[in-house]
Amino acid sequence: MTTSKSRIRRSFERAASSYDGAAVLQREVSDRMAERLELIKLQPATILDAGSGTGYGARALRQRYDKARVIELDLALPMLQVASGGSAWWQKKLPFLRASRPPQVCGDVENLPLASNSVDMIWSNLTLQWLTPPDRAFGELQRVLRPDGVLMFSTLGPDTLKELRQAFAGIDSFGHVNRFIDMHDVGDALVHAGFSEPVMDMEYITLTYESVKAVLLDLKAIGAQQLQDGRNPGLMGKSRWSQLVAAYERLRRDGRLPATYEVVYGHAWKAQPRPGKTLPDGRRIVEFKPRPK
Questions:
Q1: 87, 137, 176, 282: which could join 81 in a potential S-S bond, CB 3.0 to 4.6 Å?
Q2: What does the angle CA 165 – CA 16 – CA 106 come to, to the nearest 5 degrees?
């Protein structure tokens, strides 16, 4: 199931001002990703935060790697403006009065405006799930990564928001909940893109809410409402809303409604290429050697 790039951009542009107030999951996953950096023996000079949002992960990376240059990249310009504190009217009109800020790029992960072999580490927290399939994104990330550099990311798996999907089942034929690809397919895409030594793991994180309305408002506040093809373009009527609430209420436990996220973590390396061999017809064979231990 595909997602329109313009639809993604518009959704996250609208959510920029409300994002930080609702991005509980995004911050928690970012913190858990940061713990995994203990396993990465690398001191990067240049880091790309691909899908940086309002800058939470980038700030943590700067604290950890205080000598590194951390580039924030996001598809939605308002997200970058919130991250830099440059969204006030006087900062837009008088940019020379802004405090110095880190490098930012408004760009597309599937078409990165960066040179090949230009960054040592790529960090991407809960962005790749919007790029289905992820093959083109992984190809671009592999291109800009230097040999022996590392990609570290999180994304969402197919059990994400399973309660909401279950509640919507039987109401109509539209897709109301985004669908995400399996962890094993993500791993296959990494290998296909030329990454080596991919490591993948998964966990479930469940948030709880007072009401169905609160669940949907949170999704809207972070720009994560239904973005894929097949969604209902109209408003939900009272009858269908009542059916949805009744179905979801059957899942209430200990006075709260669950919203489960399947969070997939991964990291992989870009191997050093070996000198290529030429076949009689002119085609070249490129071999890759494992990353030095």
A1: 87
A2: 110
Torsion sign over Cα 108, 111, 114, 118: positive
Quick check: 25 pLDDT over 60? yes
Enclosing H/E stretch for 205: strand 196-209
CB neighbour class for 123 (10 Å; exposed up to 12, middle 13-18, buried from 19): buried
**CA separation for the pair 42, 62 (Å, rounded):** 14
pLDDT tens readout for residues 128-143 = 999 989 999 999 999 9
**DSSP notation for 51-89:** T-TTSHHHHHHHHHSTTSEEEEEES-HHHHHHHHT--SH
User: For the segment 201-230, what is each residue's pLDDT rounded down to a tens digit?
Assistant: 999 999 999 999 999 999 999 988 665 554
Burial class (CB in 10 A: 0-12, 13-18, 19+), 72: buried
DSSP letter, residue 108: B
